[in-house]
Design brief:
The chain has one domain. The chain has twelve helices and no strands. It is globular and about 55 Å long.
Length: 304
């Protein structure tokens, strides 16, 4: 299946899920903030987290030539240790860790999103990748500042830590969007079809962050436009000739680690404190941060 067809279908799924979720929220099927958080939480657990559920296969590919059958003894403790380092850093230095996470996550989101279309490298590709992923952050800051501020507070970063940026939030978003569009036109000028699809994705993401609750807009992007591309890429690795069979193989192989992660996340939500809404936000974002570091390191090492 051509990349353009896959991207077109992903955009349709994203749009349908956006309209469906909008209907649930504004017709009171999701009738309060807590039910919305749980809806997004389970979307991320089912679809978002699973896109890193085959990291152990990459770990095996990297470590087995050096350790033979003993590779799991290094991979799994190392993976867990890196995640714990992120969590401990967040507890000890929340502003710095959040800042680093936003920078790293911004680049990671954009690099994987654009890498779906183009095997890119170099300064220009990396800058445009960062702008693509960082748009999620500037959109949140500009159009959902109060909710973003509340989430940051849940993540132990008070508003006084970033107060100086408040006056520039519209300018940051506008500059981000303008530079991204110009960069995408430059990067994909020789493939107009892909350029149109990517620009349409940027438009739909922007609309979702303007009109949907912040956590819902992020969850839909993360599950249906970011994680889905990674899952499709992994499925093509599992079966290059049949993407449908590759998706089936991915689903089977992803179940164990996805299930373990989901159980741990649910336990954290109900055991951290009595504030369930705050626990969900902490579990989603600190949890994603703790998984992102080893996930990115594996990708970087595996590409060498």
């Amino acid at each position: 299946m051509e990349l353009n067809k896959i991207q077109s279908r992903l955009l349709i799924i994203f749009s349908v899920m956006g309209l469906f979720s909008y209907s649930l929220v504004y017709n009171n099927f999701i009738h309060n903030n807590l039910s919305l958080l749980f809806y997004c939480f389970f979307l991320i657990l089912i679809l978002g987290v699973s896109h890193g559920a085959l990291d152990h296969i990459r770990g095996k590919r990297i470590l087995r030539p050096y350790l033979n059958k003993k590779w799991p003894l290094v991979f799994f403790p190392g993976y867990i240790l890196l995640g714990l380092i992120v969590i401990i850093s967040w507890i000890q230095f929340p502003p710095i860790t959040l800042f680093l996470f936003l920078i790293v996550a911004g680049y990671h989101f954009g690099e994987e999103d654009l890498g779906f279309f183009k095997d890119g490298s170099g300064f220009v590709f990396n800058i445009i990748s960062f702008l693509k992923g960082f748009l999620i952050i500037t959109l949140s800051f500009n159009f959902n500042f109060e909710t973003t501020s509340l989430f940051f507070n849940y993540l132990m970063v008070p508003q006084n830590e970033y107060e100086f940026l408040v006056s520039y939030k519209s300018a940051l978003f506008s500059l981000n969007l303008l530079c991204l569009v110009v960069g995408l036109i430059y990067l994909f000028k020789e493939n107009i079809n892909q350029l149109v699809l990517i620009l349409l994705e940027v438009l739909l993401i922007t609309i979702s962050f303007i009109y949907l609750p912040l956590i819902l807009a992020f969850s839909l992007y993360f599950c249906f436009l970011h994680s889905s591309k990674h899952i499709i890429g992994l499925s093509k690795e599992l079966d290059p000739k049949d993407i449908g069979n590759g998706l089936k193989l991915f689903s089977i192989k992803a179940i164990p680690l996805t299930l373990v992660t989901a159980i741990a996340a649910i336990l954290f939500v109900f055991l951290l404190s009595e504030k369930i809404d705050e626990n969900i936000i902490k579990t989603i974002f600190i949890g994603l941060a703790s998984l992102t570091l080893p996930h990115i390191l594996l990708e970087v090492i595996d590409k060498k």
